[in-house]
Amino acid sequence: MSTTGAPEEAYTATPFLPDGREPSLTALRRAAAGCRGCPLHRDATGTVFGKGRAHARVMLVGEQPGDQEDRQGEPFVGPAGKLLDRALADAGLDPADAYVTNAVKHFKFTRTGPRKRRIHRTPSLREMSACAPWLAAELAVVAPELIVVLGATAGKALLGSSFRVGEVRGTVLEREIHGRPERLLPTVHPSSVLRSDDRAQAYQGLVADLEVAARTLSS
Fold first, then answer.
1. What is the pLDDT of residues 204-219, one digit of tens each?
2. Are strands 58-62 and 98-102 parallel, antiparallel or unpaired?
3. Which residues pair with 184 in a beta bridge?
4. What is the radius of gyration, based on Cα positions, of the chain?
5. Pairing state of beta strands 173-177 and 180-187?
6. What are the tens digits of pLDDT across the range 3-35?
7. How far is CA 6 from CA 1, 56, 106, in A?
8. Nearest of 68, 58, 216 to residue 146 by alpha carbon
9. Residue 150 and residue 169: Cα distance in Å, rounded?
10. What does pTM read for this prediction?
């Protein structure tokens, strides 16, 4: 593993990636635990790396860890993650067969209220760019047949700052991502379903998008 590090102001995780052309997910996870590629690591409990099958056919990419994910050290273990598992199953996709990760590996938050609750803050493009080498490495190892893009931040991290989830959700896109031809299906982040005024309708919309993913994988 590289030990040279880099100043946080450089905003890049590259020096923290393990040496070797084809590192395993285990090696990547171990290396990511020591990432200091941007200032987000200072306040977070630790790095939250991806989890799931090493060669899953579908990779789901969210924004960043939430409060529960930061505390437990795993992605999608909070309320949004539980909703996502249910939506995947309802769409005909086995959550156990997927690989789940986030565009940003540290929890970005602010504290508010008398109990100083940790409230999510959206990562900046600079922070997403800093973390991009980890996502690129995960994609190279897993080599999924389809990437499900969960929400606007993940979409911007993968497809650029002009991405708008409402314009392309439920549509299979073909793009070059980190030097690899990929198929992507954007949809909303499950946390947006939890915030929706009409949760039932929002949930059905998420399931409908995931059903497109299921059909794409079966075709």
1. 999 999 999 999 999 8
2. parallel
3. 147, 173
4. 17
5. antiparallel
6. 455 567 789 999 999 987 778 999 999 999 999
7. 14, 32, 17
8. 58
9. 9
10. 0.93
